[in-house]
Specification:
The protein is mainly alpha-helical. It is built from six helices and three strands; from the N terminus they run H-H-H-H-E-H-H-E-E. The chain has a three-stranded antiparallel sheet.
Length: 158
């Protein structure tokens, strides 16, 4: 590893140490592996460009660090959205995810019920109440277009 690559590596190591303190406990292992993954990726890149005498250069180390960081942060995001300590939390995350993925147009209560048939009515209503009270979800009634049936209220991620 050349001296510029070493500087990139040391910066990454400090950044990872800082990030570990900020992420939830279940995500810490993914963040801690960034340094190790970066080393492996940088070595692969070095061998791919100079197979007889590989030397990790700053450009390769920077590429490896950015790729490892991106992959790990994606994993942290997915873990926080999907891992749960109990069934209610799992249901909460599932309902939140469905409403969030519906986008700006949202979805009707009927559409949500169709997607979460396995969740008991009382618990679903309790979770929706919590989401509304916390301001994460709003219930809006779209403007009526012409005559006919009035539009149904839609749940929208705030």
């Amino acid at each position: 590893m050349d001296e510029h690559a070493t500087a990139v590596y040391e910066d990454l190591t400090q950044r990872v140490a800082d990030e570990v303190a900020l992420v939830p406990n279940e995500a810490k292992p993914f963040v801690r592996r960034i340094v190790e993954t970066t080393q492996k990726l940088a070595l692969i890149a070095a061998v791919g460009t100079e197979y007889d005498k590989p030397v990790i250069r700053a450009k390769q180390m920077d590429w490896a660090a950015r790729l490892a960081w991106s992959c790990s942060m994606t994993m942290v995001k997915e873990v926080s959205e999907r891992m749960a300590d109990n069934q209610r939390e799992a249901n909460y995350k599932r309902i939140s995810s469905i409403i969030r993925k519906a986008g700006k147009s949202g979805l009707t209560m009927g559409m949500l019920v169709d997607k979460v048939k396995g969740i008991e009515t009382r618990q679903r209503e309790d979770i929706l109440k919590d989401l509304k009270q916390s301001g994460r979800v709003t219930e809006e009634i779209p403007q009526r277009k012409g005559t006919g049936r009035p539009p149904k209220a839609r749940l929208i991620w705030a």
